[in-house]
Amino acid sequence: MLRRFFSYYKPYKGLFILDFCCAVLSGLLELGFPMAVKLFVDELLPSQEWTWIIAASAALLAIYFVNTGLMAVVVYWGHMLGINIETEMRRKSFDHLQKLSFRFYDNHKTGHLVARVTKDLEEIGEVAHHGPEDLFIAIMTFFGAFALMFTVNAKLALITAAIVPVVAWVTSRYGARMTRNWQALYGRVGDFNVRIEENVGGMRVVQAFANEDHERSLFARDNANYRRTKLDAYKIMAASTSLSYMSMRLIQLVVMIAGSYLVLTGELSNGGFVGFLLLVNVFFRPIDKINSVIETYPKGIAGFQRYTALLDTEPDIADAPDAIVAPQLTGEIRYQGVTFGYTGERPILKGIDLTIEAGKTVAFVGPSGAGKTTICSLLPRFYEVDGGMITIDGIDIRSMTLASLRGQIGIVQQDVFLFGGTIRENIAYGRLDASESDIIEAARRARLGEMIDAMPLGFDTIIGERGVKLSGGQKQRLAIARMFLKNPPILILDEATSALDTQTEREIQQSLSELSQGRTTLVIAHRLATIRNADRIVVVDDTGIAEQGAHEELVAKRGLYSRLHKAQHGN
Ligand SMILES: Nc1ncnc2c1ncn2[C@@H]1O[C@H](COP(=O)(O)OP(=O)(O)OP(=O)(O)O)[C@@H](O)[C@H]1O
Hints:
single chain, 571 residues, ABC transporter transmembrane region fold, Rossmann fold, 2 domains, 6-stranded mixed sheet, 10 strands, 65% helix, elongated, binds adenosine-5'-triphosphate
């Protein structure tokens, strides 16, 4: 884990060395200060030579300036090192999120994933910057100060060192409790994120059900849990801060008493006494530093563990090593003995055999939950078949690269997902390099022209988060415009018009049939009226494909389709 962590320093070796050297130099200068005071009291003061005193003060001033510069470098360049590592990790995790399959997103909560790419990485950045540097300097000052104390007075140095195990024990005891507490706090923050995400995202549902009080109480519970955990952390922090203050003062008192005795017996000079007291501060300061490393380290490491866990999650759907870029497809689709289940225990599709000729429209109908959407989700490899094979133009879809396969399949979903930008940006999502005239043409073909003309900002109109400022029909049209722009040979239309009024539905149906001209189209429909003209209707039930054929054929067959048809049309 640590080796992996340090591998992120590699590209920033220069920055790390600069930061590290400046920090070490600054630490050494800090160590030198008590010795300078000793010299001042023992040698310069008794000489009563103002020239020397002024010269020494000027030298000290120069050292302060140098140290100030060093500190500025450490703070700025050190943090730059941290943020560079954080940015690289963020790029990698976002990149990895793009590769993970629908199955991964089915099983993970958005709030937790957002926390991984934001908060977790922030903590790692802090540790990346402070961790190794603080630890090294702490060790260096600790031993450096002890060596200097020893040269000033060995007896006093040994007495001081004897107290170290007590302070270290107190520190480590609190450190371990702090670590556990930070980990708990992480979980709480994740819960929080999920709750807020879901609440804000689903605010329309919350308010429509007037369930604000219920939401408030759920949130209050999370909020209280977070508060409790954080208070526990502060309790530990209060105990450890006050205890370390107390132990520091007690040590100073011990040194003062023992030092006074040594001064009176002539074993220690006045300068040595003052210098030693200053050195004691420097000697014990690293313990504070180690404390702060102990505090940030578990946060960073816990974040790093979650980061690596995300990065190590193998995408369960990826390009095969020898995947080919799919040629321009005509769209002849074949399902051969396809079996599939979302979970191992319950297969949804059992041995589906189906051929769809290029350019034809096939409609899937059947009871809710039968697996119509699932059949279509397998085509762009959103989920991978468990058995059997799907081919397009005779090529197994698993042997094509995902990008070249999905680039040739267009999907218009019932619940159109739009991004929060402008109408132009949302249409252009269909083909990012589309020209302005292509976008205008796509909007015209999707019958969006009038609506856009009526808007003061036209194509630059902001449509709100997920397109809230558009009507259901307008969203559908926008999704269709995207498809005209994408121009794929294969289309999947998922209940695209079921939520619209009759007039809008008719208009959108016209756009859709125009869109499906010359493309292989898979329609998932409940409204049988809208698919009457499909080249073929495939009736799906729990057992698989129950029957298939043209509308008239299926009505005459008096099977499931005929029953569904009767139920919807009453004849
Ligand atoms: N992401 C998923 N994870 C686990 N199970 C799922 C998932 N999506 C669908 N299912 C289950 O798979 C079965 C088939 O669902 P599917 O959405 O394909 O049905 P459908 O025929 O399209 O239904 P509807 O007409 O209601 O949309 C259902 O039992 C459903 O609960």
